Amino acid sequence: MNAYLHDNSELFQLISEGDETAFRQLFHIYAPYFRALALRITQIESATEDIIQETFLRLWLSRDKLKEIELPHYWLKRIALYQCFNYLRKQAVHRKAVASLPAVDAVFSPEEDLTYAFMREQVGIAVQQLPAQAKRIYLLSREQGLKIPEIAEKLSLSPNTVKNSLVRSLHAIRKHLEQLGMVFPVIILWLLKV
Fold this sequence. Notes:
Layout: H1 3-6, H2 9-16, H3 20-42, H4 45-61, H5 72-100, H6 110-128, H7 132-142, H8 148-155, H9 159-179, H10 186-191
Helix pairs in contact: 2-3, 3-4, 3-5, 4-5, 6-9, 7-9, 8-9
């Protein structure tokens, strides 16, 4: 970390008192450094913005503890590193879950084919019942394969809004299917395209 990043004790002090202007200043000072750090660790550009947002969100939520921290710039760096490694861990779990799914081109019995077709039809019906914005977000994710940051940018929404909408949509679709007696893991819903 360069010397410029070390000498911000006054900003950290102001943030601990709830000063939003100091928080914005600190964000503009540290964000480029953390962006480069996150990109070097994750090697995925779209993940860096989420990592930076989560890092600074945690700083703001824990601002009352800043007075007790001797070297807050190192503490903030530890938060950023934790977010990077947490992201990598989640990606590894996701890859493992996807790898364990049976191949899509597996041969199904005629009964399984009908069940799958019915399930896809019911997912389509459940998607049509979603509120307009939730439906648009879900379809951008499932039909166009856009990632959360891409959808957020396209619709001028925050990534957290998009993520929450997708979670609610999956819950609504799953509930619709459960009412029909169809129960299966959420990961299957995520992989199904309408």
